[in-house]
UniProtKB/TrEMBL annotation, chains A, B:
Top-level division of the source organism's lineage: Bacteria
Zinc finger (C4-type): 58-73
Name of the protein in its database record: Recombination protein RecR
Molecular function, one GO term: zinc ion binding
Family: Belongs to the RecR family.
UniProt source species: Galbibacter orientalis DSM 19592
Domain Toprim: 81-176
GO BP terms in the entry: DNA recombination; DNA repair
Keywords: DNA damage, DNA recombination, DNA repair, Metal-binding, Zinc, Zinc-finger
Gene3D superfamilies, A to Z: 3.30.60.80, 3.40.1360.10, 6.10.250.240, RecR Domain 1
InterPro entries documented for this protein: DNA_Rcmb_RecR, Rcmb_RecR, Rcmb_RecR_Znf, TOPRIM_dom, TOPRIM_RecR
Gene of this entry: recR
Length: 206, 206
């Protein structure tokens, strides 16, 4: 793409550095901002800068938070000995939305992925092991997505926790509620038969 | 969506104001920026702000330009009496990419669209009429997309130019090169038959 303006070119370049946004989309977004009142651009720029420079993470679970101890960790009604290990804040939000979980979280900040140069030391694993070591945890629930990176991360943490007395579990994999059996992939269907549960348990909705 | 951080919420909100970007995508983009070095966020913010505050438009064709008279208008090799009317810079870039056009442009900055509150006075139409009035234009080529808004805009400008001696033309509509006839829509196919050209003309590639 050849631009008639260096300013435009540099703005489009920076926007196209975002994941999933190509040069064409970036140009569309930038032209949109040019047509809007200046306040929209200043608000966008300042909110991103403020977040980047002032973002804090909960000292206990590492979730993004404006205060030292996040709302979930600080809530006395949550079971603090039940810890759900997730990748990032999106998973926390998804699980919170179900309204089914009363424990706390531990946000790793990613998954082990040698391809992307992310090793165990780049993730918040040491603080989790420390918590377990100090006897603060009864059960750990692994809730990472079941990809190769997710499974590797689960297994790495599982190995680190072996010396300590802690129950480890993983969220159930199976056919999604409302899905047709014939369209399910074989691995999921296979697991859902292998890990079947007593019928009377399925009658409880909570 | 409930956020654990007001800073995060406000950044996601601002990003989701961009066209075609919902809350989920906005969250994904913001989390990506959080994982990247701070320079990426500062570069993004400053390039957008600089563009918004310092953007200039060519005084002749209204295209985005860093200088008073854009490269195309300032080029003595371009036919300055042949003017192609387009909606925005993306159309200029698309036509320039073909390498087939040697005239200059006139960028309207949009199309007449009462639904979006855009009337003729919001577009760069007066300066075009002025140019024609002063006898600076031999031919005007309308190259707006053929939607209702595009057709309305073409017709409005055409009416404004009626008192003056100027040739007006519109880009050819027809079956795209390489497309199969059977998949073409009826309007396009109909027009391509109505506006057929002498076969020997189709043999010239330039």
């Amino acid at each position: 793409m050849e631009f008639s303006s260096k300013l435009l070119e540099s703005a489009v370049y920076e926007v196209s550095q975002l994941p999933g946004i190509g040069k064409r989309t970036a140009l569309r977004l930038v032209l949109h901002l040019l047509r809007q009142p200046e306040s929209q651009t200043t608000n966008l720029a300042s909110s991103l800068l403020t977040l980047k420079t002032e973002v804090k993470f909960c000292k206990s679970c590492h979730n993004i938070s404006d205060v030292e101890l996040c709302e979930i960790c600080a809530n006395p009604k949550r079971q603090e000995k039940l810890v759900c290990v997730v990748e990032d804040i999106r998973d926390v939000m998804a699980i919170e939305n179900t309204g089914q979980y009363r424990g706390i979280y531990h946000v790793l900040g990613g998954k082990i992925s040698p391809m992307d140069g992310i090793g165990p030391l780049d993730l918040n694993i040491a603080t989790l092991v420390e918590k377990v070591k100090e006897g603060k945890v009864d059960e750990i629930i692994f809730a990472l997505s079941s990809t190769m990176e997710g499974d590797t991360t689960n297994f790495y943490i599982f190995k680190q926790l072996e010396p300590y007395k802690v129950v480890t579990s993983t969220i159930a994999r199976g056919i999604a509620v409302g899905d047709e059996l014939e369209y399910a992939d074989e691995v999921t269907l296979g697991r859902s038969i292998l890990h079947r549960i007593p019928f009377e348990n399925s009658l409880k909705s909570d």
